Amino acid sequence: MSKSSVLNTYNFVSTFNLPRTIDSEHYQLIIRQQPKQARLCNSKERGYREDAQNFLQSPYYFMCANLVYPGDDNENITNSSKYLAGTVVSSLHKLKDIDNTDGGFFVFGDISVRIEGRYRLRFSLFEIIREEVIHVQSILSDVFTVYSPKTFPGMSESTFLSRSFSDQGVRIRIRKEHRIQMKRPQSSRHSDIADCEDDIVNNDNNE
After folding, report:
1. Contacts of 35 (CB under 8 A, 6+ apart)
2. Of 111, 110, 105, 35, which Cα lies nearest the Cα of 80?
3. 8 A C-beta contact, residue 119 and residue 9
4. Domains present along the chain, CATH in parentheses
5. What ranges does the record give for the region Disordered, renumbered to this chain (predicted)?
6. Quick one: three-class SS letters along the chain?
7. pLDDT tens, 13-65?
8. Could you read off the pLDDT of 151-175 as tens digits, one per residue?
């Protein structure tokens, strides 16, 4: 989870109290990338029935992310703006999957948690039908830990799926693999400059 650029002020009602007028058996939600760990952000930080193709491009579907405690999966954490920051609502994206097939994805590339602890994310799918917003289905993520800045073990390298979505125009912060730079003996200023130029060329070819 990256730092958020916007702090959300949304409050969502519990999805368990919403009427269901849609047969959810026709829908299947799959979490393709599970949250693993997160560094908390504070208020001072910038957190950063029809043809299937019609569903992939429908503007009437959107998904909301809410935080829940691992032992209380049936209820969202109240006062969501106190806990969550960033983009907590996603529209439907038609994107190429890693096997080059078309898919419908909801992307949460900029979502942060502001309080330490262990949590799960509930992703709830909604459909806009005329003047109503209908809850379709929900799915829970795995449990993940939010660390303080001092204990946070560090960000992982971006996955191939994230890189693929970024290449297709989705705004996702891509993290490159950490490179360990070896110290060289300073024989001459000229040789140091030549080595740096070689490194730049090699890095450009590898990325």
Report:
1. 1, 121, 141, 142, 144
2. 111
3. no
4. 15-206 (2.60.40.3960)
5. 181-207
6. CCCCCCCCCCCCCCHHHCCCCCCHHHCCCCCCCCCCEEECCCCCCCCCCCCHHHHHHCCCEEEEEEEEECCECCCCCCCHHHHEEECCEEECEEEECCCCCEEEECCCCCEEECCCEEEEEEEEEEEEECCEEEEEEEEECCCEEEECCCCCCCCCCCCHHHHHHHHCCCCCCCCCCCCCCCCCCCCCHHHHHHHHHHHHHHHHHHC
7. 444 444 455 566 677 888 888 887 777 776 555 444 444 455 567 889 999 99
8. 999 888 888 999 999 999 998 888 8
